[in-house]
C-alpha cells in the first residue's frame, strides 16, 4: 500500500526535470547538435513537440524509435544539459536531477554510492566505455566537459548490450557535430561564486563548426577554474579522499570530423582530451562526527585548510591529483549494404586517475618510513582498445528486423602507489569477445523483441605480493575465464489514444571490483584462480510499465525487479574502515514514475519520482533468507523532483526546481542499522536572449542556502563527513557568430 501511495502521489504531482520515456517519444533530440545556442522559445518548442520522433542508439546499437524499445529509456536533451550547466559543472548532477533511480550526486569526483537502480552503471562516451569494473575507482563519471554533450541517453536496468559493467543500466553521453551548412562559431563564458574570497568559478568555452557538402568538422575547447566550496553555514567543505571538484582546473579539447562518400556511406573520426587537476591549495581536515546511533546531521562537518598535506619531515612531497581521459575513435557506417545497415567503430582510450595523499594504515611500510609517517598516493591507469560492430537488416522478413554483431575489447588496468612506486592492485589484463544477435518483430501496434549475447572473456593476473599491511603475502597469478550466454526479451503494445504498455526481461553481466579482494589477501600460498570472490555476476531484470502521452503532457510508470544469485555489494570493515566485497545474493525492487503537464504554450510542469529497495543475506555463501536491507553504498533514498518552466516572452524564460530526498531507516530484522535524513533543495534559472550579444543566463543552486548533509555522508566511511554545497550563483553568456 505504501509503494502504491508513493506511485500515485508521484504521478499526480507531475514531477522532475527530464523528459523520461518508458519506450515512448521524448522530444528535443538534436535541436542544438552543432553547438548553436537555442533561444528560450526554441528550446521549449523542442521539448514540447509531441510529433517529433526521437531515436536512440544506446540500447539498440542502431537508430531505433524509442516507442519500439520495451524498457525504461531516459533521454536528457541538450536543453536540459544546458540548464544544468547554468547551475553547476557537476557531470553527475544532471543525472541525479533527470534520471529516476539515480542516486544523489556526491558533489565530488567520487561516485561511490552513486548507483542506478541500486547497481553500478556503465558510462559511455559516444559508445566508448569509460568505466573499468575490474578496478572501479569511482572516478569514471568525470571524463569530458559537458559543453560538448548534445544529449545523454540512459537505458535503466541490467543490460548486456555493451558488454560488462551495465548492472544498473547504460549511460551514453552523445557529443555534438556540425549539422548546418557554412562556418559557425560559438563562445561561452561563466562566472560563479558563493560570495567568499576563494569560492570563485570561471570558465570559457568555444566551438567551431563547418559543413560543406559531404564534409563536416566540429571542434571545441573549454577551460574551467574552480575555487573552494562552502556549505550554507560558511564552512569550507572538506576535500574528498577520492579527490574533489573544488580547487581544480579543467581542460578539454574535442574534435569530430566526417566525410560522406555518398548518401549511404560515412567515415568519421573523433578525438577527445580531458584533464581535471587539483591546484593543491588545500588539504583535508577531519570534522567531528556525532556518536553512532545519534542524529548524524548534528556534528561538525569535515573541512579543508590552506596548504598541502606534509610528510614526516614537514615537506610537501605530493603529486598533483587528476583525472585524465584520452580517446580516439574511427567510425564507418553504410546504410545500404546488401539491403542492410553496417556500423563499425574502432577505438583506443587511456584513462588515468591519481588520488589524494594519505598517511593511512594501508600506505605504511617500516622499510620506507616509521609507521604512521608515510604519505602516499594511489593511481589507477587503464588502457583500452576495442572494436564494436553492428549489421542490421530492417526487413529480413516482413516486419522482422535482424541485428547481429561482434564486439571485442582489451583492457589493461592496474593501481599503484605513485610516490613509492608500489603495487596496490596488480595489472588486470582483460580480453573479451562478444557476438550477439537481436530480433525485433512488428505485428501491427505490437513489437516483440528478443536476443542473445555470448560473453567469452578472461582476466590474466601475473604473480604479485601484497603490501606490508597485508603481510606482504605472495599471490600466484592465473587466468580467470568467463563464458556466459545472456538473454533478453520484451514486448511493447501501442494501445491507442496515446497509451502504451510494455514488459521486458533482460540479463546483464559484469565482473566484481576484483581489485578489492586482490589487494586484501593477507595469507601466503593463495592463487588468483582459487579466489571465489572473483566469480562473474549475472543480473536478471524483470520490468513492466505503462505510458500515456497526450497533447497536454504525459504520465509514465514502471515496476522492476533485479536479482543476482551471486551479487557484489560493498560494506565497510568497522575496524579499518576499508571496503569489503560481499558475494551474496541481492534482490532489488523499485518503482520509477514520471509525468509532464503543458497547460499552455508558455507554462510547463514536469519531473520524476523513484523508490528503490535492496535485500541480501547475512553472510557470504548463504542463499536464503534475504533479510538484510542494503544501505547507502548501494541503494539511494527515495527522491522526488519538481520543475516549473515559464516563458513570458519568446526571448525570456524562468525555471524553478525542487530536488527532494526522503528520510530513510534501514533495518536487519528489527535492528536499525542505518538512518539518513532527507533534504529539500530549490534551484532557479533565468535566461534572456539579447540581440547582437547572445543568451545571458543567471542560475542559483541551493536557492535558499539550506544547510544539509549529503545522504552518503551520514554513514561513517573514510573521510566522508561532508555537508552539501551552499548557495552558488552563476552567470553565463553564450554567443553565436
Compact overview of the structure:
With 737 residues, the protein is mainly beta. The protein is built from 5 helices and 40 strands. The strands form 7 sheets. It has a 22-stranded antiparallel β-barrel. Strands 1-4-7-8-5-6 form a 6-stranded mixed β-sheet.
Account of the protein in words:
By secondary structure, the chain is mainly beta. The chain has one domain (2-736): Maltoporin, Chain A. The chain is built from five helices and 40 strands. The strands form seven sheets. It has a 22-stranded antiparallel beta barrel. It has a six-stranded mixed sheet with strand order 1-4-7-8-5-6. A hairpin with a 3-residue loop joins strand 38 and strand 39 (694-701). The protein is globular, with a radius of gyration of 25 Å. The model is unreliable at 1-31 and 46-55 (pLDDT under 50).
Per the principal axes of the C-alpha atoms, what is the gross shape?
globular
CATH topology: Maltoporin, Chain A
Overall pLDDT = 86
Proper CATH architecture? Beta Barrel
Q: Ends: how far apart?
A: 57 Å
List keywords for this structure.
737 residues, mainly beta, Maltoporin, Chain A, 22-stranded antiparallel β-barrel, 6-stranded mixed β-sheet, 6% helix, globular
Amino acid at each position: 500500500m505504501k509503494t502504491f501511495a508513493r506511485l500515485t502521489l508521484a504521478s499526480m504531482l507531475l514531477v522532475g526535470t527530464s523528459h523520461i520515456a518508458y519506450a515512448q517519444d521524448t522530444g528535443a533530440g538534436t535541436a542544438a547538435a552543432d553547438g548553436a545556442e537555442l533561444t528560450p522559445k526554441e528550446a521549449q518548442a523542442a521539448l514540447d513537440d509531441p510529433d517529433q520522433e526521437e531515436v536512440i542508439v544506446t540500447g539498440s546499437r542502431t537508430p531505433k524509435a524509442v516507442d519500439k524499445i520495451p524498457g525504461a529509456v531516459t533521454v536528457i536533451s541538450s536543453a536540459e544539459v544546458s540548464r544544468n550547466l547554468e547551475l553547476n559543472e557537476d557531470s553527475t548532477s544532471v543525472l541525479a536531477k533527470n534520471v529516476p533511480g539515480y542516486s544523489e550526486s556526491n558533489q565530488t569526483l567520487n561516485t561511490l554510492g552513486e548507483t542506478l537502480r541500486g547497481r553500478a552503471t556503465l558510462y559511455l562516451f559516444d559508445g566508448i566505455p569509460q568505466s573499468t569494473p575490474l578496478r572501479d575507482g569511482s572516478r569514471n563519471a568525470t571524463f569530458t566537459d559537458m559543453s560538448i554533450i548534445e544529449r545523454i541517453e540512459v537505458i535503466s536496468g541490467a543490460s548486456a548490450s555493451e558488454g560488462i559493467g551495465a548492472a544498473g543500466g547504460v549511460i551514453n553521453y552523445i557529443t555534438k557535430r556540425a549539422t548546418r551548412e557554412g562556418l559557425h562559431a560559438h563562445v561561452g563564458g561563466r562566472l560563479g561564486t558563493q560570495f567568499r574570497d576563494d569560492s570563485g568559478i570561471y570558465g570559457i568555452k568555444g566551438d567551431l563548426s563547418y559543413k560543406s557538402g559531404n564534409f563536416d568538422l566540429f571542434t571545441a575547447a573549454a577551460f574551467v577554474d574552480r575555487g573552494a566550496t562552502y556549505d550554507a553555514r560558511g564552512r569550507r567543505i572538506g576535500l574528498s579522499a577520492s579527490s574533489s571538484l573544488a580547487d581544480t582546473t579543467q581542460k578539454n579539447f574535442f574534435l569530430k570530423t566526417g566525410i560522406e562518400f555518398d548518401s549511404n556511406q560515412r567515415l568519421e573520426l573523433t578525438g577527445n582530451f580531458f584533464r581535471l587537476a587539483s591546484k593543491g591549495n588545500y588539504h583535508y581536515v577531519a570534522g567531528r562526527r556525532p556518536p553512532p546511533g545519534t542524529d548524524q546531521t548534528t556534528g561538525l562537518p569535515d573541512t579543508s585548510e590552506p596548504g598541502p598535506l606534509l610528510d614526516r619531515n614537514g615537506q610537501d612531497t605530493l603529486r598533483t591529483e587528476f583525472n585524465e581521459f584520452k580517446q580516439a575513435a574511427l567510425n564507418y557506417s553504410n546504410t545500404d549494404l546488401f539491403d542492410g545497415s553496417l556500423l563499425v567503430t574502432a577505438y583506443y582510450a587511456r584513462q588515468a586517475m591519481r588520488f589524494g595523499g594519505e598517511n593511512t594504515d594501508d600506505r605504511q611500510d617500516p622499510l620506507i618510513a616509521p609507521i604512521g609517517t608515510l604519505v602516499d598516493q594511489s593511481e589507477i591507469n587503464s588502457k583500452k582498445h576495442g572494436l564494436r560492430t553492428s549489421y542490421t537488416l530492417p526487413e529480413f522478413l516482413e516486419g522482422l528486423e535482424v541485428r547481429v554483431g561482434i564486439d571485442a575489447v582489451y583492457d589493461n588496468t592496474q593501481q599503484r602507489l605513485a610516490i613509492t612506486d608500489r603495487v596496490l592492485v596488480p595489472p588486470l589484463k582483460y580480453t573479451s569477445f562478444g557476438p550477439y544477435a537481436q530480433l525485433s518483430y512488428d505485428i501491427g501496434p505490437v513489437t516483440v523483441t528478443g536476443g542473445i549475447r555470448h560473453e567469452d572473456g578472461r582476466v590474466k593476473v601475473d604473480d604479485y605480493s601484497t603490501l606490508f599491511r597485508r603481510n606482504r603475502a605472495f599471490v600466484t597469478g592465473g587466468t580467470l575465464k568467463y563464458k556466459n550466454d545472456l538473454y533478453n526479451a520484451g514486448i511493447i503494445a501501442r494501445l491507442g489514444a496515446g497509451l502504451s504498455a510494455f514488459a521486458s526481461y533482460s540479463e546483464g553481466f559484469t565482473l566484481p571490483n576484483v581489485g578489492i579482494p586482490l589487494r586484501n589477501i593477507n595469507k601466503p600460498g593463495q592463487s588468483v584462480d582459487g579466489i571465489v570472490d572473483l566469480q562473474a555476476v549475472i543480473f536478471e531484470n524483470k520490468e513492466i510499465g505503462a505510458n500515456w502521452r497526450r497533447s497536454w503532457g504525459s504520465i509514465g510508470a514502471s515496476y522492476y525487479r533485479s536479482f543476482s544469485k551471486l551479487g557484489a555489494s560493498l560494506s565497510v570493515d568497522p575496524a579499518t574502515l576499508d571496503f569489503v566485497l560481499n558475494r551474496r545474493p541481492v534482490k532489488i525492487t523499485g518503482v520509477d514514475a514520471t509525468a509532464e503537464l503543458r497547460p499552455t504554450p508558455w507554462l510547463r510542469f514536469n519531473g520524476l519520482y523513484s523508490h528503490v529497495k535492496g535485500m541480501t543475506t547475512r553472510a557470504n555463501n548463504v542463499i536464503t533468507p534475504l533479510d538484510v536491507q542494503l544501505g547507502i553504498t548501494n541503494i539511494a533514498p527515495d527522491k522526488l523532483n519538481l520543475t516549473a518552466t515559464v516563458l513570458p516572452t519568446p526571448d525570456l524564460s524562468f525555471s524553478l526546481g525542487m530536488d527532494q530526498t526522503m528520510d530513510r531507516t534501514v533495518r536487519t530484522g528489527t535492528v536499525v542499522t542505518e538512518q539518513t535524513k532527507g533534504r529539500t533543495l530549490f534551484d532557479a534559472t533565468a535566461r534572456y536572449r539579447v540581440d547582437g550579444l547572445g543568451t545571458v543566463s543567471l542560475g542559483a543552486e541551493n536557492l535558499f542556502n539550506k544547510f544539509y548533509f549529503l545522504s552518503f555522508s551520514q554513514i561513517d566511511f573514510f573521510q566522508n563527513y561532508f555537508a552539501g554545497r551552499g548557495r552558488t550563483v552563476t552567470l553565463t553568456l553564450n554567443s553565436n557568430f
